[in-house]
């Protein structure tokens, strides 16, 4: 028999503590009927491979894939989608922690609301030591009217996703998107009329790592580059939306100004934007 849920998680170079916490948080879920597909996207990470196989020996629900070469997040997740057997797909990141009833609550919600295609949840943002930094609580009203609010503010946390399997299999991640893979996918699914929803409960702890300003600037430039690519790709669907153009101009200004704006000012701008 096929499992009800396929959890898909890509690992790369996460610290051992984070990887173990993430894996254990899934294996200790109150809902038991799942397969846990873990893709190692760094074939040279012998330690991570050893850790994953250690858990696999103890729990046969783990399906382990090692990429022959680094594919990036989109390619790794697509590999997982290709073999997933579950009725629903759930996402997980290798440094986050799922709360014990996450799968059970999302599964019951999807079963009781057949019109919903993609389901998310509230999250706790945590630091390196697991301490809660803040709560992230998007409203159900905004998620259900996502086409209206999508470009106004950040609303969806990718690793809280549970979706109907056939939808993600038909609409895979764009492997040309090295960053902002989820951003591009949400835009694409919105244009196709799929229904988004959220459980207004905390079901995941999302780890936020400290970075020096150089690292943060570099990541923001990459994020803006691929967000621009995604925005331009879908412009014909959103070109009348003023908030779309606000997003486009924001990312364009960041991408363009790196050569001419002092890094200290750029850092302030990014903090003000809240990215």
UniProtKB/TrEMBL annotation:
Gene3D superfamilies (UniProt xref): Spore Coat Polysaccharide Biosynthesis Protein SpsA, Chain A
Transmembrane region(s): none
Domain of life: Archaea
SUPFAM superfamilies: Nucleotide-diphospho-sugar transferases
Pfam families per the UniProt record, alphabetical: Glycos_transf_2
Domain named Glycosyltransferase 2-like: residues: 6-168
InterPro entries named among the record's database cross-references: Glyco_trans_2-like, Nucleotide-diphossugar_trans
GO molecular function list: hexosyltransferase activity
Signal peptide bounds: none
PANTHER family: GLYCOSYLTRANSFERASE, UDP-GLCNAC:BETAGAL BETA-1,3-N-ACETYLGLUCOSAMINYLTRANSFERASE-LIKE PROTEIN 1
Protein name per Swiss-Prot or TrEMBL: Glyco_trans_2-like domain-containing protein
